[in-house]
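Supplementary notes for students who missed Thursday's class. We covered one full example, reproduced here. Read the sequence, then the structure, then the short commentary at the end.
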Amino acid sequence: KQMGAALFAREAGGHRLTEAGRQLLPAVEAMETAVLGVERAAPETGGGPTGVVRIGATEGFGTLILAPHLARLTQKHPGLTIDLLALPRMLHLSRREADIVISLERPTRGSVIVTKLTDYTLHLYGQREYLARRPLIRTRDDLHQHAFVSYVDDLLFTKELQFLDALHRPDRFAFRSTSITAQYEAVRAGAGLAVLPAFVADKDPVLTRVLGGEATFTRTFWMSMGAEAKHQSRIQAVWAALKQAAFSLH
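Structure (token representation):
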């Protein structure tokens, strides 16, 4: 209000900078850099990392794998607060949406530090009762007789999740969702077949893999942070914890 102009405009997927906001952005970034410089120069208190760290991650990985590890990290460092944004969309360091971002595509622009976090596998799954009452699946051609569960195509946030184009283009979808958790629950309920992460579906006795290695995919999680944040003790602590969490997949 004091600026006399709107700096952000609300959109369906969040907010975007207005022209006034874009003009002000360089000055704000310079102020942020100065503040971070003071923080890096400040002596350690000896009490461990403190403050807020915001992490952006995909929904399934963030919820099932990262959340338990990060919860234990906050028990180890009571002064640390974790904001976990486990969302079915991409988050951007350049927009200051998160301090650390875990994504399916390697960032290629901006002053960022990037590391390969882990590979993970996905398979085609079906509910055992569903498969018992439907036509037997021996080859890809048999998939035409089955319903599928998948993402909403026009809301897909990365091409890395376009599995069915390489496997089988379904005649119809029984259920679609932007949420991998919703897809998983739909498959458990017998709605049809879906490509799901092994870390989501393998431990569920209700589900079983379909077509074995012929319907197996490998994807990579990349972890990135702004170069200016690498000296912050809270970022370092969370960065290390995220690597440990990813190691638990293997």
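Commentary. Confidence is low (pLDDT under 50) at residues 36-44. Residues 19-41 form the longest helix (23 residues). If anything here is unclear, bring it to office hours.
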